[in-house]
Amino acid sequence: MGYAILFGASAALLFGLFYWSTAGFMRQQSDATIQAEAAGLAERYRVEGLDGLTAAIEERLLRAPSTASIYLFAGPGHQRIVGNLTGWPEGTPDAGGWVDFRLTDPSGEADEARGGEPRAARARTFRLAEGYSLLVGRDMQELDALQARTVRTLTWGVGLTALLALAGGALVSYSTGRRLSTINAAIDEIMSGELSRRLPTRGVGDELDLLAGNVNRMLTSIERAMDDVRRVSDNVAHDLRTPLTRLRNRLETLRAETGPGTEEAVVSAIQEADGLLQTFNALLRIARVEARQRTDGFSEVDLQSIVTDAAELYGPVAEARGQHLEVAIAPVPALVGDADLLFQALVNLLDNAVKYGPEGGDVRLSLSAVGSTATIAVEDNGPGIAEELRDDALRRFWRGDHSRTSPGSGLGLSLVEAVANLHAADLALEDAGPGLRVVLRLPIQ
Ligand SMILES: Nc1ncnc2c1ncn2[C@@H]1O[C@H](COP(=O)(O)OP(=O)(O)O)[C@@H](O)[C@H]1O
Ligand SMILES: [Mg+2]
Questions:
Q1: Mean pLDDT across the stretch 204-216?
Q2: % of the chain surpassing 70 pLDDT
């Protein structure tokens, strides 16, 4: 409706303007013709006097007896001398000598044909010497008819435009309304728990499609997050059940045989409890890192000393497994970050390399900088992680099949990823052929 009103109003305005300018122009043209004819007659009058004027009018009437031109040359009492007008019109001319009047047709036939409405005319009047006067004018009938026709046409035009606008508006709001209601229906389904449902798009790339696409992407990430939450709670329940059961069993045995084996049982129960605590701590730490605002508590970090410290810490551990830890540290400009977290992440990577690399194997640790990127890489020559499992390896509690026998809870790489995200760094698990290479690319601000 609003669309139709706006459209109709603009069409009316446009047509009105058009009418006003054409009608004005036509009236001007008609007045100019009258002026020109009057000027011709005036010239004859000036040169040849009253007789000349009379002759001139007669000539014109003879030459074109049925034109729209009107002439009347009248004597002192306005009585007709010559002209095609029966009598001097009623009404007083305006300051410019112009007068608008009605033509009374002597026969009256023409009037009746037009429903008794007498024809309109417009003329210029002149006062001549000795009470004589002259009237030169035009029958305005045609002009009026043309104007009336124009008005009719324009009115229809405005009406039609408004109608079309109404139809167009209805069509647009109908199709938009229909799409919105399908979208609303989809949202209702999603809200009722069908998280995998997506908003429909028409594939035309308009605003609604863009909006639906964005909402769909948002839904995908929400779904993934929900999935993660579910997986984590499943895993927590599952992974903690085993050590808790063992702990319980040990305490049970302890109660039954408070004898020589007691101390051993207590020690292993304590170890089990420690493992549980570690898992919880790791989970909490990841959650905290993930919840942190970027640059919160950041300071200038010297990567070289972090890498050196980690290498010193893990050199002996590697040696204990007969492994060789190879360290290559290039000078790297200082960057802004969290030194403790970076150190922890590096320790987790070294721990994996030493733990999953073969006995007597090699572990390589390197630090380098290219352009505005500092790169830390940890590489071993163990079994590595199959390419299709590398994404899973970053998830909480995921542990490879070959790792079931080694200690750990599957949270080390999750923390590394959280730390990488916090530092806007890129974390990549690559094939070292054989073995795994983990590369952390940190931007230097
Ligand atoms: N260097 C590596 N070589 C082979 N497998 C690895 C390596 N690092 C990690 N993994 C695999 O990824 C899994 C997840 O690692 P992580 O998150 O550190 O947990 P965790 O070490 O406690 O098992 C490990 O269980 C292991 O299967
Ligand atoms: Mg680990």
A1: 90
A2: 96
Residue 382: C-alpha distances to residues 266, 425, 437 (Å): 35, 25, 10
Alpha-carbon gap, residue 439 to 414, rounded angstroms: 14
Nearest-atom number in ligand 1 for the CA of 399 is 25
Please choose from 281, 352, 365, 381 the residue to mutate so as to test ligand 1's pocket, defined by most ligand atoms within 8 A of CB.
352
* Ligand with an atom nearest the CA of residue 414: 1
Environment of ion ligand 2 (residues, CB < 5 A): 352, 408, 412
Q: Report the length, in residues, of the chain.
A: 445
Burial class (CB in 10 A: 0-12, 13-18, 19+), 241: exposed
Cβ-count burial 186-212 (b if 16+ within 10 Å, e if not): beeebeeeeeebbbebeeeeeebbeeb
Distance 394 CA to ligand 1 centre (A): 9
Range 238-261 average pLDDT = 81
What pTM value is reported for the model? 0.56
Give tens-digit pLDDT for 297-353. 789 999 999 999 999 999 999 999 999 999 999 999 999 999 999 999 999 999 999
More confident residue, 380 or 402: 380
**Side-chain half-sphere CA neighbours of 134 within 13 A:** 22
Distance from the CA of 197 to the center of ligand 1, in angstroms? 35
* pLDDT (0 to 100) of residue 112: 47
